[in-house]
Amino acid sequence: MIRSILVAASGSGSDTPVFETALAAAQPSAAHLDFLHILPRMGEATVNTPHADFAMGRGATAVAERVRTEITRRSRAAERHFREFCAQHSLPVVDAAQPMMQTSASWQEICGDALECLTFRARHRDLVVMGRMKERDGLPSDLLELVLVRCGRPVLVAPAAGRDLSGPAVVAWKDSAEAARALAASLPLLKNAASVTLVAIGEDTAGSDADREGVSAAARQLAWHGITAEPRFMAGGRRNTADVLATVVAELRASLMVMGAYGHSRMRELVFGGCTQRFLNDAPVAVLLAN
Fold first, then answer.
1. What pLDDT, in 10s, does the model give residues 224-236?
2. Which uninterrupted H or E stretch holds 106?
3. Are 196 and 227 in contact (CB under 8 A)?
4. What is the DSSP letter of 129?
5. Share of the chain residues as helix, strand and coil, in percent rounded to the nearest 5
6. Is 6 helix (H, G, I), strand (E, B) or coil?
7. Could you give all domains of the chain from N- to C-terminal order, each with its CATH number?
8. Which of 157, 237, 283, 288 lies 20 to 30 Å (CA to CA) from residue 151?
9. What's the pLDDT score for residue 198?
């Protein structure tokens, strides 16, 4: 059961869909929403500000002042968004754990390394809800991916427009540790879904016996949790896996996509496979990922 959710507040226009997605995940189990805004240090914010590296002399001073002003503006906006959201949804603001009769909220603002701050707090929560970084806000552009790899917790990526999570859910299934962890993490959300479809994708129409047995076994496992799931095996053919999954999501008008995050670290700290990266970069639905 989901009891505590870390919600990343950016102080930008993405706050509304992120907050709405987090609330939709929290309400079925009356979970607590821990809103967190990171104040980046000047050095980190400057490095992650476009063209700041080219500024010199008076130009560098002007860039520093602009960065400082932007940090302050986002800080004030993030807390305002939090207060307005809590008032709109009648969320009680509490400082410590309470008997969970209804969804509650708390607010934190911390100055420090964004990745370290988010990762540390994520490890002490059941779920993390973040948005895609469409604006440069002084934070690393790959912060979402790095948090997903390091925190050890499932991450729910909010769509551009927040939505209820009680519609159809699609689970991308393959016999892997990542998919198994994602499925386990999604159980509280799947119990509240209108329908659940497990999708396994093979190279041809026939597929292997192992592929078909795997997706059927996953559906039987969900039945033990009181979740009725339709196992579906699909041939990828010439289409890549991401396109096939996107087609199923559109066909079912799904509100939630569940998938393992497949990545490895060699030349870069983080390299995700094409399918994972596709849904990390953009998706019309909320995407729950576990690494």
1. 999 999 999 887 6
2. strand 104-111
3. yes
4. E
5. 40, 20, 35
6. strand
7. 4-157 (3.40.50.620), 169-290 (3.40.50.620)
8. 283
9. 96
